[in-house]
Amino acid sequence: MFETKFNTSKIIVVGGAGFVGSNLVKMILQNNPLTHIVAIDNLMSAEKENLPLDNNQLTFIHGSIADQSVLDQLQDDIDYIFHLATYHGNQSSIYDPLADHANNTYTTLRLMDWVKQFKKLKKLVYSSAGCSVAEKTFDEAKATTEQEFTNIKHDSPYSISKIIGEFYSVYYFNQHQLPTVRARFQNVYGPGEILGAGEWRGTPATVWRNVTPTFIYKAIKGIDLPLENAGLASRDFIYVEDICRGLIACALNGKPGDVYNIASGNDITIAEWANLIVKIADSSSNVELLPKRIWDNSGKRYGSTEKSERVIGFRARVGYNEGLQKTISWTKEHLSWIESTMKKHENYLRL
Ligand SMILES: NC(=O)c1ccc[n+]([C@@H]2O[C@H](COP(=O)([O-])OP(=O)(O)OC[C@H]3O[C@@H](n4cnc5c(N)ncnc54)[C@H](O)[C@@H]3O)[C@@H](O)[C@H]2O)c1
Fold first, then answer.
1. Does 3.60.10.10 match the CATH number of domain 10-343?
2. What confidence tens digit (pLDDT) does each residue in 176-216 have?
3. Cβ < 6 A, ligand 1 pocket
């Protein structure tokens, strides 16, 4: 039988105000009345209002996990750690590799090195990314398994940081028996991803973040949807509630030192994804064909779900139609908030 709930536990969520982190915090609070969560976040790419700050099971620490004053607040009374902090995302990391290092690679190293002697810790779940191991192909994708070797050629410092995080997860497990579990995500979408969340990170991707919230916002506003490389690439889109269930399955059922894909197991081209969003949003938007992004060679990919289903009991439940309907409704309900976070960056970017 697979566990789905925590007993009395102290849980740390690093990057807890972010898109995935805040959804994870809410899901754990909802189902586990005896847990206490400490969310740590420097709000580099998040808004703290994404967290239920009035819940007395939650403590929020505003700061970087790479700062000693923040690490000093973590003592050996923690049951689980979810490490979700990142320098979001590929384009920000290409613009400023040093900021990526400070908030991505270095956060992982500082955190793991600080907690390596903690005796009570049952699991540290590291959020890795399928992009750092997937084969780069525009031919038909085959499922990426957990056994894939990483290519030495990466498209961005972000991708390099994610795979270095895996190297450190394995190193700290082997050397110090730190019970790390790597959760390799595919592309997450869903409520709580706020366009423009956090600080300006050098490029328009600060505002537009990822393809799904961008397409949904533009579809709602009747603006054309930008299709780079004619939308030929494909992705394995996974709804955020499923990712959170997968992270919890990694924490409760994952084997220390091991890695699990948290994926839907299907891929869809970006062009098909755009058309589906336009249809579900009942939008008048068209698509705008753009050239391929020079740095982006990732092509078509999806994750194999065989191992995570067999070993940790994880299977994605939410299909594309349901997931997109919920995300579009959430975006419409929160439009004025989203537009106010986008507007923060208007000095840098003509929206
Ligand atoms: N969203 C996806 O499609 C996806 C895919 C693969 C992997 N991931 C991984 O999942 C994790 C969560 O991603 P997300 O989409 O929620 O991104 P996000 O940007 O919303 O969340 C990352 C959080 O980390 C915080 N952060 C940055 N630097 C920090 C620091 N030094 N100390 C503390 N907090 C810091 C940010 O403010 C933000 O809240 C990331 O590690 C990401 O690499 C996400």
1. no
2. 999 999 999 999 999 999 999 999 999 999 999 999 999 99
3. 14-15, 17-21, 40-46, 64-66, 84-88, 103, 107, 127, 129, 162, 185, 187-188, 198
